[in-house]
């Protein structure tokens, strides 16, 4: 299969939205939409009046119009504007969600991929996180219904997903096993999805997208290829300098004086070993110089996956004022990206741009009332009476600890659900007037971004990024 050499990495929530993915795919490279929280984003875009009518156009193409109409009736506000923020939230996803929740998940994921693929035949992928399990079965069905070409997945070990893609491709229902804290040995909790619950006449077959697994070690690459429930078509090797979440360092956690995790030689992936696996692979994390593509190809890789450069281009979902502020600081050499070991409820280290007005600022973080109202990063646990409970380290620490959560965990945990929504213009405003603050999670390698903006300026496009990555051959090295 002739895969694209450059992958625009999936960036949630809503940073790599359909516009960015489409712009990249139109240039002949792989555009990847973030599949995280698309259900919530769709409801918010509709409540904000759906400027341009894109969400409604996507819904009009959904194969079951009764489902589409129910969603519009509940969430679309004709009078809405982009500065509306008093959103009605859809019900949180649980182990056994209502039909309404599943309809919204399938339709929202369909819409994003449908729009990214509209009017061209370029490659469009979608990125999901293994850590956010509950929505995945319905969401993956939705993207396949829209004909997605690639499913990319990291943040965990998604062994069951390739087989799930196979089941859906055969027109069958599918299940995944959920992580359950406090489960008995041998006890499994399944999340089952049956297309017939959402569609009046589900297609008998669907195209099986290629599956790319995002890993941070040779062992994990090997595990995915040898033990997954279906074919792994490629591997993305992501370095700890990459934007978003990072794998924790191997071995015991040591922190620098500033409090960042210390990574060492054990965290380096051996590309020679990768080449022996006979599976195409892409390098990610600081592979965004003008010669990174050539360097990665020389190391035996198929190409590169790039995030940060695309995250701040014109077509990305970040609010324009946040892009500008960030890029001005990068240009001036004043932007610092911090790898926080405890800010994410997932337990994985996460990158944070230390930027004013975001919840990277301790004072703003402390001002926020710790409520959990979107719930994507909740952990499932088994209560003493056997009932399944839900807890998030970013909710009120008292509540988290009362639910049996580890008292050490919650101190620094930020509500990423709300902060990442805020960064793309979908911040929630509460009755008292409090508006959720954003968070930016770029990669730590900013040199290539500085070169790019020196060449093009602060308002550059996805096509500029691709020309930059695929043009002249310079001296800098890709961090791999
Ligand atoms: C703002 C931002 C959000 C990201 N979100 C995700 C995500 O939701 N899922 C994921 O697998 N990777 C995510 N990433 C990682 C990218 O897909 C990509 O692998 C990474 O950014 C590559 O490193 P670079 O930033 O040095 O180019 C994110 C990166 C950025 C910059």
TrEMBL record:
The keyword Iron does not apply. SUPFAM superfamilies: Inosine monophosphate dehydrogenase (IMPDH). InterPro entries: Aldolase_TIM (IPR013785), NMO (IPR004136). Keywords: Dioxygenase, Flavoprotein, FMN, Oxidoreductase. GO terms for molecular function: dioxygenase activity; nitronate monooxygenase activity. The keyword Oxidoreductase applies. Signal peptide: none annotated. This is NAD(P)H-dependent flavin oxidoreductase YrpB, nitropropane dioxygenase family. It comes from Alkalispirochaeta americana.
